[in-house]
Amino acid sequence: MTEQVGTGSAYTDDELHEDLRWWAAANYLTVAQIYLQDNVLLREPLRAEHIKPRLLGHWGTSPGLSMIYTILNRHIVRTDTDWIYIAGPGHGGPAIVASTYLEGTYSEIYPEVSLDEAGVRALCRQFSTPGGIPSHVSVETPGSIHEGGELGYALVHAAGAAFDNPDLMVACVIGDGESETGPLSASWKLPAFLNPARDGAVLPILHLNGAKISGPTVPGRTPTYDVTEYLSGQGWDAIEVAGDDPEQVFRDFQRAVDESYVAVRALQERARGGEEVEGIRWPAIVLRTPKGWTGPHKVDGELVEGTFRAHQVPLHGVRDNPEHLAELETWMRSYAPQEIFDDAGAVAASVRALAPSGDKRMGASPYANGGRVRTELPLPAIADYALDVDPEAPGATVHETTRVLGEFMRDIYRATTTADGGGTFRLFCPDETHSNRLGAVFEATARAWQLPIEYYDDDLSPTGRVMEVLSEHLCEGWLEGYLLTGRHGLFASYEAFTMVCASMIIQHVKWLQHAHELEWRAPVSSLNVLLTSTCWRNDHNGFSHQGPGMIDALIPLSPEVVRIWLPPDSNTLLSISNHCFRSVDHVNLIVVDKQPHLQYLTLDAAEEHCAAGASIWRWASTEREGGRRPDIVLACAGDVPTQELLAAAQLLRDHTPDLVTRVVNVVDLMGLLPPADHPHGFSDEKFESLFTDDVHCIFAFHGYSRAVHELLHGRPDADRFHVRGFMEQGTTTTPFDMVVLNRMSRYHLALEAVRRATWRPDGADELENFCRSQLDRHRSYVVEHLEDMPEVRDWRWS
Amino acid sequence: MTEQVGTGSAYTDDELHEDLRWWAAANYLTVAQIYLQDNVLLREPLRAEHIKPRLLGHWGTSPGLSMIYTILNRHIVRTDTDWIYIAGPGHGGPAIVASTYLEGTYSEIYPEVSLDEAGVRALCRQFSTPGGIPSHVSVETPGSIHEGGELGYALVHAAGAAFDNPDLMVACVIGDGESETGPLSASWKLPAFLNPARDGAVLPILHLNGAKISGPTVPGRTPTYDVTEYLSGQGWDAIEVAGDDPEQVFRDFQRAVDESYVAVRALQERARGGEEVEGIRWPAIVLRTPKGWTGPHKVDGELVEGTFRAHQVPLHGVRDNPEHLAELETWMRSYAPQEIFDDAGAVAASVRALAPSGDKRMGASPYANGGRVRTELPLPAIADYALDVDPEAPGATVHETTRVLGEFMRDIYRATTTADGGGTFRLFCPDETHSNRLGAVFEATARAWQLPIEYYDDDLSPTGRVMEVLSEHLCEGWLEGYLLTGRHGLFASYEAFTMVCASMIIQHVKWLQHAHELEWRAPVSSLNVLLTSTCWRNDHNGFSHQGPGMIDALIPLSPEVVRIWLPPDSNTLLSISNHCFRSVDHVNLIVVDKQPHLQYLTLDAAEEHCAAGASIWRWASTEREGGRRPDIVLACAGDVPTQELLAAAQLLRDHTPDLVTRVVNVVDLMGLLPPADHPHGFSDEKFESLFTDDVHCIFAFHGYSRAVHELLHGRPDADRFHVRGFMEQGTTTTPFDMVVLNRMSRYHLALEAVRRATWRPDGADELENFCRSQLDRHRSYVVEHLEDMPEVRDWRWS
């Protein structure tokens, strides 16, 4: 905390003019990236053939982003602090690329984009072109942990980066458009969760240039008084900076950053000194500058600067319109390129000298390349949490499956908590840690909470590090930011409501997919998503809470990234979790319910089973080694389907003992995909060793049944798989009624197995009659007794 | 506006005590629904066997919801106004059911739940039980347009109901949990869009009881001063009501509702009198009452009332715990059931008399059963917008496909706009109406906007009725509310970002699925979702903007509700839109791009094609009537896939003229499902007439390829379908590079067709060489020229 030099000190005219020069350089390179394929230093008059054939890019937000970068650079040099920069208006890709080029990080990472004329040409030609770089701030952008594209997540990513990084300052620019979104609107609640004693700081910069793509925005047209009230009501003290005169805005913004920094450090010092700070308030900056600032003021007689018309490419048709071409040249020369570049075409040393050095450059910050600072998670031995399952009596005991994961995570918290209360692991969960039976974590830490605490509250503390807020967006986004800055964690959610943030998970898969291809991006911990309170066992909450669609949302995405796990019991869950917590650069979807479920495997058996991805459960099959090959394969994936499938196998065993059955349990869903389509895809040999190549297979599946068909295409005789899964039938009812409604009950499965078996065994008639009569009985029984028939409620494998 | 009687008038002690009696009745029935299966009027001492075996339900929020209902009832009687009630804390299902039972609507709709002891018993036994009703406010609940389940959408549904309903008041209760969500947080921006002159009013009631399921909430623990600032900054004047003394809270809340009503009417009168009201402010109520108010104060020595412990069932194990049983009885008797019910077990006439009458009862409001007030949309003849396509030259012209829909909707706006500027149709679109080429609507109306307007703005007006806000959540949710109250509309979005609100669409499908089963719910207009700016043509925006996953998200849902349309060109889009705007109770996903695309069909041909769902395009096939059956089937669905498939067909025709090809275009994706699985599923006969039963088929598909396999399972020899689709490969690049990256280019398709055809025709070698050389050339060409090769860029069918 002793490094508070520079703050409050004068911003000299020389410094201002240096900064304006950096800014001109950044703006010049931004325009050049959008427009030029040649003559990139304007060393000759601009001609049509210098212009790219397709003009792609967003100018509007860029000058503001570059100004912020400029001032932050000076601030970093003065204070010797660590900052990262989240560019919410990710459209401004060329602006951030320009500044990271000026500071030198770009060329260090991408040597072909060298610091000379050839490099500038490469910089321009690669932008928004095939084989080049995307138009938005992206995984390719040095210093970025935030994809510019789908809007809404700037502030949650910033928050995630700040948690448990006490020395980090996160500048988070939020644009007009993003400020209208749901996730961003919710994320202003951060002061209720950010701990000034142990976390870093987030400095939101609400950058209002007033417009989105073709119209104004709500905050852009809301009077500053109201915006200030809005922020103040959520724990932010807003500083307004507004104007269109660069010198004035630079001075004011520089002061605003300084003041913010002083306020942050003062708050942190109080909290770190042991004071219990009440009514925490963090600084935030409301910055109003014109959209397309310093660009063409009018085009074809129409006002552009300061309006939505500056959003993308303000001068179009430049190749064919000599007037526009001339205007572009005038615009570009207004930045005095001859002063920006030296004779070799390198950025002038006087400009480059303004950047911070080494890892303090925002494009080079190790915080924003989290794999560089990531440490392995010190995982306790899972044997300590294993459920005691009698290997001679699988399926005879009942346990709330997720409890063991809570105990495992409790000790991960303990193993990673530092002496001063920080750490490298967090659990994020809407408001359901207890409900999801993960409450053991509260033995190690509490929920993070900076607002008042009442005597009757449980597990709530300013120093708590379990993150609960009733927003899947916030939970998931915070975790993303936490992981991308090198830490570890898990997002636990009600299965159905994970769809609320499905698009965020999809965008993160896209990020990891591209990050994977960049060697300079060190691997980060996987995004682990626990889907619990699943469709089958939200019998008490009803249809809105019943939906296994996240599986379908992830199946088509990058096979390099996506993993879907369906552990059937506690010990398999432990084994899978242990694997997922070690893995990097994946998105692991773990689907398992929290209610009491049958427990099948010892830890050893579970480890072996999970490593295989799927195996034959001999103890449940009537197939005998060296005996006849199966007449029917009974497969299952997921806890409730496994239970029903086993009950069906038992019915078959007892009623049709001559039928040879084989029970297969699948834990690693992606194993069903052909090996060419997914690295986990079971080899043809393995697939056939499980499912044969021609015997019919009854498959009880946790999710929508056709998802399995989607995966099985390409497997031998895929039509022989008869999948029962969630058929989107639900309401508030009993657990067994759920499987009946969706025709996945033991009786449905047994009926289907008899029908599809290679021959009709003795006892088939009786079995069919029994199944049908049970199904008939079921409904009238539950309507009368308001609970399930005892024979299904209390059923165990034996 | 003359009906402002009663507001500000005294709330007498008699009235207060009447209201408290209604409230006691509602609370009694709430507890009874959660706990009792018998002895529901407590006419004998409570015994264990009267208690349900499973205790499911949420007590915590219920007393507050019931108090609000009570006071609104009196307000409606006094002012003779139309209100509907949105219960954001939908957990409080039993509370809303109780009040609709007390007011008589419940028994009118469900006669078996009669107004006598048998009816009360049925009411209790049906709650949260199989064959009964869900535990949450749901589609079964009279007067509801809002499913209690996934939180976040109360205020957007309320807003949608209020748009264009000038006489309607929408009470919107927002609970603690919901207030933390993203969508709800964003929806406070409503005052920027709600027009006091032409729209109805929304009265938000932020009901803070301080806790969610197991902890406090941010607004629940935020000082009222801050909450007030937060709301004020967004255009709401908050009135606080807080306390735990029922008499005091009832008086205060009654006054708050009165004051709010007066403020609303005053604002509306000013606006409706022609005044341009600046700085519009709407009233909102912040209500703080204890969670589980009037319930058990302590249980087993632990504080329950006012804490998270009152969330669900405050007394558990009542069957086995005599103390809890006694406490339950004491609690229930505290509501004096003997005064609520008459000797026959009917609700006392003095209580029932407090309800408004007829359709003014909130459970009976026609506004909340929108199909009852819905009028057919007066659709102009689509021939007026048809694109002139030469039937002799399909695929020879180019047009921005979605433009015709903009023109169509412009005239729908015109046809539905009333003399005073209201209407029954709205377009909702993040900020992309122009970008999506739907801008013609602005010839009929402007964007809705109540904030300041600048001289350089386009198409912005307080009376505008195009809804643009950069939030898919708001757009989609507003439209849901608009449709459920009997109107019509369309939500247009960038394809990838529709995933942002995927969970909302899924929940709406669930709503319609259940509504469909209830005869008393009159059909409402379908939710029409236009997915444009699609994955293939977001070449300029990059990977984050490229994702066809909405298709996968909808496929597994209710076949009664879900329709997916892939029109290949303008006239098919017109035909499909025309159909969708007439349809009811569906969710129509229409996937079509906005960029210039080849146009194939005349309107007549398009109408025929769309009615068929899929047809053979003879003009593009080399198959001749009476000739040999095809050697290969070339199928396509979606605009870009159709173009590439046709280009491949042309390559085959030109290079391998002896090969008999058949081109099939699919518009109605659900036609691929077996008819048993979807009402649109093509019959076996039709399917074979299109695809044969054994010839291999190359299928170019808009979305992820395995989605087609998911649909085709169960069709004859489904393995012979070779689908090329989006493979999750993307970046900022050229349009043709996108199809190359995803291996769906004409060259890939032609190569695959030759490989899969029944025989190897002359010319196959040359064709393969040509395709491979073109693919080789492509990448180096675009890297050099920064645009696509002219032969693909300028390709036309001929």
UniProtKB/TrEMBL annotation, chains A, B:
Keywords: Lyase, Thiamine pyrophosphate. It holds the Pfam family XFP_N. GO terms for molecular function: aldehyde-lyase activity; magnesium ion binding. Residues 594-797 form the Xylulose 5-phosphate/Fructose 6-phosphate phosphoketolase C-terminal domain. NCBIfam families: PRK05261.1-4. GO terms for biological process: carbohydrate metabolic process. This is Putative phosphoketolase. Belongs to the XFP family. The keyword Lyase applies. It comes from Rhodococcus rhodnii LMG 5362. Residues 12-372 form the Xylulose 5-phosphate/Fructose 6-phosphate phosphoketolase N-terminal domain.
